[in-house]
Amino acid sequence: MKRQFFTPGQKVPDTGIYFAKHHGHKLAEKFVFLKGGRFPHCPRCEQVDFELLQAAPYIFSDPDFCVRTRKESPGERDDERLGKIV
Ligand SMILES: [Zn+2]
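# zinc ion complex -> structure
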């Protein structure tokens, strides 16, 4: 697969894990980006390359994990619900 790099301000093409490679001041780090967002600018170097490492769906876009399909208790938060074994 051909490697693709993205720059700050470009639209995120796919949800997944990306490498953020700064120029000179920081080691590359992995982050999750959601499709349709924008790659952010770095205030320190203004030059960051983003590379898609692994496309993966956002968990709540999956019908099995979509919170709207589950019976919710009043006042229960998403993070509390996710930690429970049903
Ligand atoms: Zn930077």
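# post-check
The longest helix spans residues 78-83.
The chain has one helix and four strands.
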